[in-house]
Write a structure and sequence with these properties.
Blueprint lengths: L1 H14 L23 H13 L4 H13 L3 H10 L6 H19 L6 H21 L8 H16 L3 H13 L9 H10 L3 H14 L7 H17 L3 H13 L4 E2 L8 E2 L3 H10 L7 H14 L4 H13 L3 H14 L4 H13 L3 H14 L4 H13 L3 E11 L10 E8 L7 E14 L2 E16 L2 E11 L4 E12 L4 E9 L6 H4 L5 E13 L2 E12 L4 E15 L3 E14 L11 E18 L2 E16 L3 E15 L4 E14 L2 E15 L1
Antiparallel strand pairs: 1-2, 3-4, 3-18, 4-5, 5-6, 6-7, 7-8, 8-9, 9-10, 10-11, 11-12, 12-13, 13-14, 14-15, 15-16, 16-17, 17-18
Helix pairs in contact: 2-3, 3-4, 4-5, 5-6, 5-7, 6-7, 7-8, 8-9, 9-10, 9-11, 10-11, 11-12, 12-13, 13-14, 14-15, 15-16, 15-17, 16-17, 17-18, 17-19, 18-19
Length: 676
């Protein structure tokens, strides 16, 4: 049985390149791989063994020759056949060699995830059995150190990162010196566990410690990329960006070797280029990331990993349908790639394809539960399955504005149920608006109930509203819809019968409003938006109002943590009735334009804190009252704590004319989104 196994291994050795890892001493020991020079010695030892299988010296020589050639699996199999003829110490050493070989094979990127996990699990079984059987042996012994160190690499291959860190910290507590070659794996584990400070230190230590040692370039690249992500996740964005830019500049696509006339592909280039291309996505410039990835995918059209990164960037840039097409291309190249499956699930969530998303979530959880991408997907799906509470509050301080009175305050809450039959959510809500006009307090209170339907490109919501504003119970209804036409175009509309948005001064005279709205929005990406809406309303006193609005936002300049946007809002309205108890200009027209400066204060995984300053200016024209200037200054802050909690607040000071008289207003707003 050993002869065909040996010949198979020998055939592989003949074609094996220089630079493979040693198995006989440690996984990390780097030396030349056995080549054709080992074959004569192996064949002599094999022939001697076959002629004298019962001779112990011949057996031991054959085993030693196999170990020297780093054929650990063959040596281990031979030892198992002759357990009674070899010492317990030698059998233990051979077992460690065999486990190390399994560990090395589990680290090979060419193997499937399932196969690598199987090899790592087998290696861990052996390591754990050895440690349990040899607890009485001092941990200072070299062989035991090998087991501990190699076991860490097997745990890393198996994505059992918590145990990697635990093992590392236990060894440090025993004052055992950790080999430099392990620092990268331990750094990966800390990064996986969202402890980037410790990870960054280990990556840097590894780079410095191993700088003088002959190393494979790919190991250096892994450490630099690991350190880049560790810096980025600490919020050290400038350092991170400079590191990946420098690393990319040092890695040409082709390398020349001494004595070789033709340039050879640089295996490290593509990994660096992929990280370099994606980097702007995390530094406030997804457009640049998209451009880089598109160029890379054109140069490597059969690289599934690049297409997956491109799709993720397209989705982050507000182009989920384009991402879906790109993922279909990647699927043709690597249909069971776990990163592909999670990207498809995330895209399905963005496109409201709930059933497909659920199937992919279940599949990845079953087959790839250890992957960080799978865990993030699970968190997103868990958020989707929760209750959702929306709270909006506003307080206005004014100099007796005809719209908000001497101080309007409003509160509205809406509670959505978890999804029902995939596409449905029930909802309930309540709200109130209060203000004082000419020393008269006015109030509108309402409750609502209804349902929401979300599927694919369509979202529809409808419900009933019960109001009380001084004339008994009043029942109303509303409905709205949104239709995604493409990644860039969205249209929608709304209908309301006895809408709570009716001005309080109208409600005080028992005047209600029915309204409709139609709008269309162009969003070529997450940073640009243009919306046009028209809203006709019919008041119960016979007044007919039509409102038009155009809103636009365009990026002006972007830095790593700062973004400058230009904003403009154009509005106009007309009314058919004059001399109403509520503010009701015959016709008006307003333009307000300016800039918004947004600064990212902190970002750590799902947590994000940013604030902005807004400066606006323009003019307002009202029929019969002429034209006057408008100016506004605002400040806002928003905090996303995690998947389940977002809070934003703002303050806006505005000066504008009403009926030809300049009024000052100060508006405070608070919005909360909570999932539970």
């Amino acid at each position: 049985m050993l002869r065909p196994l040996l010949w198979f291994v020998l055939g592989a050795l003949i074609t094996q390149s220089v630079g493979a890892q040693s198995i006989g001493v440690s996984i990390a020991d780097q030396q030349e791989s056995p080549g054709q020079s080992d074959i004569p010695a192996l064949l002599r030892a094999q022939n001697n063994y076959e002629q004298k299988p019962a001779d112990n010296n011949t057996l031991l020589t054959y085993i030693a020759t196999l170990r020297a050639a780093r054929l650990s699996s063959v040596a281990y199999a031979l030892a198992q056949q002759h357990r009674d003829s070899i010492s317990a110490d030698l059998l233990r050493e051979l077992t460690v060699d065999y486990a190390a070989e399994l560990t090395r094979l589990s680290l090979a990127p060419a193997r499937s995830e399932t196969e690598r996990y199987r090899l790592a699990d087998r290696a861990l079984e052996i390591y754990d059995a050895l440690l349990e059987a040899n607890n009485e042996i001092s941990v200072t012994k070299t062989t035991n150190h090998r087991i501990y160190f190699d076991r860490i690499q097997a745990l890393h291959a198996r994505k059992r990162m918590g145990e990697v860190v635990q093992s590392y910290e236990q060894l440090r507590a025993q004052n055992i010196v950790i080999p430099a070659y392990l620092l990268n794996e331990i750094g990966d584990a800390y990064l996986y566990l969202e402890q980037p400070e410790k990870a960054a230190t280990l990556y840097q230590t590894s780079l410095i410690t191993n700088a003088a040692a002959p190393r494979d370039r790919s190991d250096v690249i892994k450490e630099k990329i690991g350190r880049y992500y560790a810096l980025q996740e600490q919020g050290r964005w400038t350092e991170a960006y400079e590191l990946i830019e420098t690393t990319y500049a040092e890695e040409p696509p082709w390398r020349r070797l001494p004595g070789v006339s033709q340039p050879l592909p640089n295996d490290s280039y593509l990994e660096v280029a992929r990280t370099w291309a994606v980097a702007p996505l995390f530094h406030n410039d997804p457009r640049l990331a998209l451009e880089r990835l598109e160029t890379l995918t054109e140069s490597a059209p059969r690289d599934a990993g690049l297409k997956i990164e491109l799709a993720n960037t397209q989705r982050a840039y507000g182009l989920p349908r384009a991402a879906q097409i790109t993922l279909k291309q990647a699927e043709a190249l690597a249909p069971l790639n776990p990163d592909l499956l999670t990207a498809q699930a995330q895209t399905a969530l963005s496109l409201q394809e709930w059933e497909q998303a659920q199937e992919l979530v279940a599949f990845t959880q079953k087959h790839y539960p250890e992957l960080k991408t799978t865990q993030h997907l699970q968190e997103d799906w868990a958020t989707h399955e929760k209750w959702e509470l929306l709270i909006g509050a506003q307080k206005t301080f004014s100099s007796d504005s005809p719209v908000s009175g001497s101080g309007e305050h409003a509160l509205e809450t809406t509670l959505y149920s978890p999804p029902i039959a995939s596409n449905w959510r029930a909802l309930v809500g309540a709200g109130q608006t209060n203000a004082t006009f000419n020393d008269e307090p006015l109030r509108n209170r309402w409750v609502k109930g209804g349902a929401q339907w979300r599927a694919g490109n369509t979202t529809i919501e409808a419900g009933l509203i019960s109001q009380r504003y001084g004339y008994g119970q009043k029942t109303g209804a509303y409905g709205n819809f949104e239709q995604k036409l493409s990644d860039t175009w969205t249209m929608g509309g709304a209908l309301a019968w006895r809408t709570p948005a009716t001005p309080l001064r109208a409600l005080a005279d028992n005047i209600s409003t029915n309204s409709a709205q139609a709008w269309i929005r162009w969003t070529p990406n997450t940073y640009r938006e243009w919306t046009f809406s028209v809203t006709p309303s019919r008041f119960s006193d016979g007044n007919r109002r039509v409102e038009l609005r155009i809103y636009g936002k365009e990026p002006v300049k972007q830095w790593s943590t700062v973004r400058l946007d230009g904003e403009i809002e154009v509005s106009a309205s007309s009314n058919t009735k004059e001399n109403t108890p509520y503010y009701n200009p015959k016709a008006d027209f307003g333009v307000l334009a300016g800039v918004r400066l947004t600064h990212l204060l902190e970002q750590r995984y799902e947590s994000r804190l940013e604030h902005y300053v807004q400066l606006l200016g323009g003019s307002y024209s009202q029929k019969h009252f002429g034209t006057g200037p408008m100016a506004a200054i605002g400040y806002g802050i928003s905090w996303r704590a995690n998947h389940n909690l977002e809070i934003s607040s703002s303050i806006l000071g505005i000066r504008r004319p009403y009926d030809g008289k300049q009024e000052k207003e100060l508006r405070l707003a608070l919005n909360i989104s909570l999932r539970f």
